[in-house]
Amino acid sequence: MYHPQVGDPLDALDTPSMIVDLTLMEGNIARLMGRFQGTKIHVRPHLKTVKSPKLAHKLLAAGKAGAACHAGATASTYQGRCG
User: Fold this and answer.
1) CA-to-CA distance for 62 and 56, rounded, in angstroms?
2) Which label site among 10, 55, 66, 70 has the fewest CB atoms less than 10 Å from its CB?
3) Cβ contacts of residue 75 below 8 Å, gap of 6+?
4) 7: left (phi over 0), alpha (psi -120 to 50) or beta
5) CA–CA separation, 78 and 80 (whole Å)
6) What is the pLDDT of residues 3-33, one digit of tens each?
7) Whole-prediction pTM value?
8) Distance CA 19, CA 11 (A)
9) Could you tell me which of 18, 22, 23 has the C-alpha nearest to residue 49?
10) Cα dihedral across residues 41, 49, 47, 58: positive or negative
11) Cα–Cα dist 6/31, whole Å
């Protein structure tokens, strides 16, 4: 089975592939979490939109508030893989 890794060259990726600017994404996560720091608001990302256990883990590590899943299939995809 195909398992692309962070840093793989673009020409080695199958299509469609999710391509993420990690520096930009990590900055956006930090800015989002910073806006709610010191408040009673806890960010809980909806994992259906994340599409990646590695990205979900980054969100959870930054906020530690948990996550939301609408469908059981989504929850089972991430179970034990991002926390």
Assistant:
1) 10
2) 10
3) 47, 69
4) left
5) 6
6) 888 888 988 888 888 888 889 989 998 998 8
7) 0.66
8) 12
9) 18
10) negative
11) 23
